[in-house]
């Protein structure tokens, strides 16, 4: 299969490119800079210059592919609404390039803020207003009416592994800045997690075999408590572990505080049954204990 990957030079994207190539697929990666193109080439894929805001280019690149995995996103927390709007336009353009072919379009989303309780499942939808990106999955799934095989993969907020510079790295930075590895209130709130290589394996399965309209959860662990995460960070840095009152979350953690406060456990049982996905790589706490975030 000839697969186009947006965000191919990024954290999840580069692992996905490697997984696809290992499985025998040909991969083209969207590259918005010389550095991204060089990274994609080094992975063994073919770069195509473009950007997720170049809608004509997205349509053309999708039409030349047997399937698309859309991971590119502007992660700017100061302009969340604009980023979500750009993503919707990109999904629509990629769908137009695939229209009438029955070919797959795999789109990334997240599990934070789903309506399910006590544990969210693949059948649950997003709570309106938690994140403007939440509605984009529905935009993708509607492309089935245009002869596309749309699939939505909702990722755990923590996609970890050696080299991760995401949410856990931000929590480590907050601990270093304040001298305290903090958790919110009683620390019982839960964050799902998945190793980046397990996430990449799921994306490969999704583009190969997931039926049209599938919603999948990339959550190897349905919920790791905030207190456990703080204790692992404190142990790695040699810092005290303390509760941070809700009213001091922004002060202590910075931009990540409100996200870290959420209790959003999410199951992946339906995903595992559907595709036979079996996460095999280290857990989040094992990766923290291994020292990957303290270099």
From TrEMBL:
<dbReference type="Pfam" id="PF01370">
    <property type="entry name" value="Epimerase"/>
</dbReference>
<dbReference type="InterPro" id="IPR051783">
    <property type="entry name" value="NAD(P)-dependent_oxidoreduct"/>
</dbReference>
<protein>
    <submittedName>
        <fullName>Oxidoreductase</fullName>
    </submittedName>
</protein>
<feature type="domain" description="NAD-dependent epimerase/dehydratase">
    <location>
        <begin position="3"/>
        <end position="84"/>
    </location>
</feature>
<dbReference type="InterPro" id="IPR001509">
    <property type="entry name" value="Epimerase_deHydtase"/>
</dbReference>
<dbReference type="InterPro" id="IPR036291">
    <property type="entry name" value="NAD(P)-bd_dom_sf"/>
</dbReference>
